[in-house]
Amino acid sequence: MVRSFGGEALIDATVRGIIIENGRAVGVKVSNTDELEECTSEEDLAKVPAVEVRAKNVVCATSYNKFLPQDLPVVKKFKDEATIRQSNGHVFLFCKLRGNADEIGLPDHNLWYFNGYDLDDAFDKYFANPTEVRPPTVYIGFPCTKFGLIRQDITWQKRFPNVSNCILISDGLYEWFEQWSDKPVRNRGEEYLEFKDKLTHHLLDILQEFVPQVKGRIEYHHLGTPLSEETFLASYRGGSYGTQCVTEMFAPINRNWTTTPFTEVPGLYLAGSDAFLPSVTGAMYGGCLSASAVLGTLGTMRLGHAILTHLAMRLREENPKLSKIEAYMLAVKKFTE
């Protein structure tokens, strides 16, 4: 869809900065992600070449603290005026399980663990002592069992025979890991790994307690931290959901910085949760708002039609008896539900 609108989708490319010329955003500097991951020092990072990708408009999910030149007047204004801050980060435990989902009896719905009824108290105790106290909440999901927009991913078992997977997500403060933030990926030292192991222990206990059929089937696990979000998702200080979701984000003084796709830099637009509201749905609508701001009224209508046409095509694949008009009208209904 991006390419049909004249765009291009780049993979394995990490944005390292926004190019500003004569006060206007004119592109981004990107480097090969694999080359960046191999770096073990700041000196190595400085040697990785950056390629300029120029465009009429630049859309970015995070800008002021990370990608814009820090001597830019608008950045100084943001740091002087804004009273918002980034959201907290998370820890992510990725598990490989032996056996297919049906054999193990994995649920196809998500599970939530809550450490007691007084969540405020649970969060306070966990944040104060995360290695000794169980996390207050944990999301447990099994992507291998999930359905897509129209149907289940029936290719999983063909692509990964006798293998299932699981992900657990819980809260994790950037401050816990900040002492290792200047260390390169996979070279952050034994203390970092030991700290991760203690957090992993809690999550594995919770997984095996609430999904006991996975006991003895966990062949591999790896824990991601807010540093992982900072490295691979370019999240400022590992914030998972953009701007922290507090009432202050709606204060008049912050209207120029969040809940809007527009910025004071010509040619630069915000996308994701910072352009609308936090979390997954907020980020999705933030992307739509940003696309609309760039495309204008007619372009937005074309984009909406393209989305509905694509959904209608998928619906006809599911039910070939539908006519094109019937599929399109059903797509409109599903899109607006």
Helix fraction by DSSP (H/I, runs of at least 4): 25-40%
The number of strands is: 10
Largest sheet: 5 strands, antiparallel
Radius of gyration: 22 Å
Identify the overall geometry: globular
Our count of helices gives 11
Strand/helix succession: EEHHEEHEHEHEHEHHEHEHH
What spatial order of strands do you see in the largest sheet? 6-7-8-5-9
Report the end-to-end length measured between terminal Cα atoms. 23 Å
What structural class results from the helix and strand content? alpha+beta
Low-confidence stretches: none
Mean pLDDT: 90
Beta percentage is: 15-25%
Describe the protein's architecture and organization.
This protein has 337 residues and is of the alpha+beta class. It has 11 helices and 10 strands. The strands form 3 sheets. It has a 5-stranded antiparallel beta sheet with strand order 6-7-8-5-9. A hairpin with a 2-residue loop joins strand 1 (13-21) and strand 2 (24-32). Helix 10 (279-318) packs antiparallel against helix 11 (324-336). The longest helix is centred in the last third of the chain and has 40 residues, at 279-318.
Topology record:
Elements: E1 13-21, E2 24-32, H1 33-37, H2 42-47, E3 51-54, E4 58-60, H3 73-81, E5 89-98, H4 101-104, E6 111-114, H5 119-128, E7 137-141, H6 156-159, E8 163-172, H7 174-177, H8 190-210, E9 218-224, H9 226-232, E10 268-270, H10 279-318, H11 324-336
Parallel strand pairs: 4-10
Antiparallel strand pairs: 1-2, 2-3, 5-8, 5-9, 6-7, 7-8
Helix pairs in contact: 10-11
